[in-house]
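Page 42, continued from yesterday. The earlier attempt failed because a stray header line got pasted into the input along with the sequence. Redoing it now with the clean sequence only.
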Amino acid sequence: MSGLILPGLGQIAFKHYKRGAAIILTVLVSLAVIIVKSVQHALAILEKIELESGVISMSTIVNAVSQASTNYSNFMLNFALALMTFCWILGTIDAYIIGKKKDIEEASTGLFKSPP
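This time it went through. Structure tokens are written below.
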């Protein structure tokens, strides 16, 4: 579940609630930052296009994009994306390890039932 739906859900399914909640919260905050920064960037580009000529052409869009990008905005966007990717990978690997440990515990205690 961590790899396909939302990082942290695998941990919650295996009853590691704090770890799962931390991963989910980090991913959701990162996603919110990405959405907010992307919308701000798009609005700044539209505003520059309107101020220049109001005519939308490929060269106008390219010029507006190059002028609207700032280092701080790009850093925040890249950091949020990297953090979200890291949490996704970490959550998937961690859920896999927890699941493997549970399988080993169940097999050693005889609680694991094989299908008929």
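Notes: The two ends are 26 Å apart (CA to CA).
Reminder to self: strip header lines before submitting.
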